[in-house]
Amino acid sequence: MKQLIVLILLLLPTAVFSAEPKDICDENITMSTSVNDAIDIQKKCQVEKNLQLIREKSNYDRFSLMHRQSTQEYQYTTSIIIFSLVVVIVIFGLVFSWLEFKKGKDSTTTLKFSSNGIEISSQIIGLIVLVISLGFAYIYIDKAYPINEIGSNNTSSNK
Predict the structure, then answer these.
(1) Do 97 and 133 touch, CB atoms closer than 8 A?
(2) For residue 7, which of 159, 154, 44, 15 has the smallest C-alpha distance?
(3) Cβ atoms of residues 26 and 44 within 8 Å
(4) pLDDT, tens only, 27-39
């Protein structure tokens, strides 16, 4: 919704300025026009064209700035959501590994092979879950969530 409002506000000035003004360049230079008047008309024509280009460039710059700002706001919001999800996943992994360690104190290590698959119950499961949770957090922070200064040339591949 916010992007739609920004787009409307950006296009509104463009619609106002895009009304075709009477172009001084469309005036016919007649034979009775003096050379000095013809030169003045050409200079005015060039000035009008330059002003129109400046207006169009200003409108484009305004749109570009608002688009970058809305994009960064969206990325900031989604970044917080994804980071929160990762934190929840890692906390669940740590809690589950703690429960497995606690359960492993009272039980013995068993290893069963069957046609349905492999079944392992041991404290090792808790250790494996702990390693996977911490590895996931490390990889996310190192590769998916690098913090770089805006406008700098540093990327995660330059480490």
Answers:
(1) yes
(2) 15
(3) no
(4) 555 555 677 777 8
CA distances from residue 89 to 2, 57, 82, 86 in whole angstroms, order as listed: 31, 47, 11, 5
Burial 74-102 (b: 16+ CB within 10 A, else e): eeeeeeeeeeeebeeebeebeeebeebee
* Residue pair 102/127 in contact by the 8 Å Cβ criterion: no
Total residue length of the chain: 159
156 compared with 132, residue with greater pLDDT: 132
142 and 156 Cβ atoms separated by less than 8 Å: yes
Q: CA–CA separation, 1 vs 43, rounded Å?
A: 45
Task: Report how far Cα 92 is from the mean position of its chain's Cα atoms.
Answer: 29
From 69, 89, 67, select the one nearest 77 (Cα to Cα). 69
Q: Is the pTM of this model over 0.85?
A: no
Average the pLDDT over 151-158 and give the result: 57
With 0-12 / 13-18 / 19 or more C-beta atoms within 10 angstroms meaning exposed / middle / buried, residue 14 is middle
